[in-house]
């Protein structure tokens, strides 16, 4: 890793690197390694993120575009969210997306296993002050790569509201293919909303990786 990181992060990357090797040698491979990209560090959400999450998530333009975010969003919601990210299904990874230069919390990105055991569902949100800088795409690429590399899965699915062109563009830039439409319940709206369903399969991901390398 060429990038210089603040000491605590560097330490965490080293620790997580060791954990990743342990996970790779065990059969469940359930770890969520810290991910470092050109501009971002994706790591587990910490207690210290509570204020930033509470501030950035308390935004109707964010809450109404994701399925399970309450609105208004309080500090208590943020604290409970951070606690929930520490538990859950094997293979679930929820990351805090942070600025690699200064550690600032920018948003969240993660994957959760689906019932069929070969599919993960991708989700993400970025705080509004940081929209339009390519962060969601960069974070999604890193999480997708990690998921296909470390898990025995065939598919990653993602759903976005039909009224969400920004997220649709992120989905297209990640190579997902349109599967169909459906309805998803929105906690913030207290109603079902129409969504588009997209899927990225392992073969397509491998092709995309080799095109990028070429
Ligand atoms: C959707 C979201 C994650 C995008 O984050 P971001 O960091 O701004 O995304 P990126 O910069 O990587 O890419 C956004 C793309 O959408 C495009 N875009 C944004 N708004 C758009 C609009 N109204 N119409 C068309 N394209 C739009 C941008 O131009 C960019 O494409 P480009 O790189 O080709 O120019 C962010 O707006 C967000 O968190 N929204 C609320 C929560 C949400 O929608 N989460 C996703 C749930 S499926």
Could you provide a short overview of the structure?
The chain is of the alpha+beta class. It is 37% helix and 27% strand.
Description of the molecule:
The protein is α+β, with helices and mostly antiparallel strands and 214 residues long. The chain has a single domain (7-213), classed as Aminopeptidase (3-Layer(aba) Sandwich). Helices cover 37% and strands 27% of the residues. It is built from seven helices and eight strands; from the N terminus they run αββαααβββαβαββα. Strand 4 (105-113) and strand 5 (119-126) form a beta hairpin. Helix 2 (50-57) crosses helix 4. It is globular and about 45 Å long. The two termini are 22 Å apart. 31% of the residues are buried. Mean pLDDT is 87; it is low at 1-30. Coenzyme A binds next to strand 5, helix 5 and helix 6. Keywords: Acyltransferase, Transferase. It holds the Pfam family Acetyltransf_3.
Cofactors, ions, other ligands:
coenzyme A
- Which residues sit in consecutive blocks of at least 5 with pLDDT less than 50? 1-30
Second CATH tier, the architecture? 3-Layer(aba) Sandwich
What's the level 1 CATH class? Alpha Beta
Gyration radius, rounded = 17 Å
Number of domains: 1
Helicity level:
25-40%
Order of helices and strands: HEEHHHEEEHEHEEH
Q: What's the N-to-C terminus distance?
A: 22 Å
CATH topology: Aminopeptidase
Structural class: alpha+beta
């Amino acid at each position: 890793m060429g990038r210089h990181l603040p000491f605590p992060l560097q330490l965490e990357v080293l620790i997580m690197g060791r954990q990743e090797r342990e996970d790779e040698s065990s059969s469940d491979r359930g770890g969520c390694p810290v991910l470092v990209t050109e501009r971002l560090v994706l790591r587990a959400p910490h207690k210290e993120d509570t204020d930033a999450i509470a501030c950035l998530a308390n935004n109707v333009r964010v809450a109404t575009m994701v399925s399970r975010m309450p609105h208004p969003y309080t500090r208590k919601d943020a604290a409970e969210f951070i606690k929930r990210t520490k538990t859950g299904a094997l293979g679930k990874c929820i990351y805090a997306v942070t600025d690699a230069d200064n550690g600032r919390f920018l948003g969240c990105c993660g994957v959760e296993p689906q019932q069929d055991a070969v599919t993960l569902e991708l989700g993400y949100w970025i705080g509004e002050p940081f929209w339009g800088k390519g962060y969601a795409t960069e974070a999604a690429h890193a999480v997708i790569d990690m998921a296909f590399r470390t898990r025995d899965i065939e598919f990653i699915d993602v759903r976005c509201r039909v009224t969400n062109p920004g997220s649709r563009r992120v989905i297209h830039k990640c190579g997902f293919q349109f599967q169909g439409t459906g309805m998803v319940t929105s906690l913030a709206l207290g109603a079902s909303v129409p969504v588009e369903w997209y899927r990225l399969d392992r073969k397509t991901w491998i092709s995309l990786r080799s095109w990028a390398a070429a």
